[in-house]
């Protein structure tokens, strides 16, 4: 085995195509996308009972209910920070075991920053509602406010951080997955599954679906990785 | 004759314009830090051959070698220096210019 086993000659086209092929191979070897998606899926599933049992619900005699998702508030910020730490460490370890270095820190920092945005938005909204309680005959909340609310909610911030990861990895498959995930979370798409038995149950379909989508994504990327090897 | 009018081949750096060394620089650039064994596998080289090429690149100041241990196993990590990053970018740019020149020359 000699240097001649890398055939590119002096032909600029072949040299350039060798450069591109090697770059693609290294990029693929640095990716541990399934780990990130699996960690986030686990966090999403753990959040479901926390949200359910941690929610304060106050229903009036007329049937109108006010709720306060305290469980989510206390669970998600530390859970997201822990998740991004686990992902960063796992990326680094796996990439190093393969012989390359990981470029995952900007993703973890973005995720942590978005966690701060989520917490600040939640606290800000809570203070606003406490000072400006909605009138009983108030019109329904505007669609763009609901969309913004979902974007800064944990599921939305997970999607935005995944966009950063897709950019870092130059991973088109992850980009496509993330756009689909964001569409499901932001619209939101529940595939016709709705539960109106309680206030807690209203949130269940979207939570389960976003967790399942992340878990399926993790499985898909893990399978794709195994096939590549 | 200005520098722009020179044929791109005149600007090629002999240290970089060699397929194995270009491969090393490419991998090191993409990987941030790359292990010796990974380079050997990807470029299908013997340890001795790879060491020779790394020596050339290190002497030229294009890569930095860092030896360490992982458990009891010795490992060598290779990092691209800023000069290496610049040299790789210049080489790729010249290759593109060459291809463009050849394509133009091929046209009737």
TrEMBL record, chain A:
It comes from the Bacteria. The chain crosses the membrane at residues 32-53, 73-92, 104-124, 144-165, 172-191, 203-224. Keywords: Membrane, Transmembrane, Transmembrane helix. This is Uncharacterized protein. It comes from Actinoplanes cyaneus.
UniProtKB/TrEMBL annotation, chain B:
Residues 20-99 form the Winged helix DNA-binding domain. Pfam families: HTH_34. It comes from the Bacteria. This is Transcriptional regulator. It comes from Actinoplanes cyaneus.
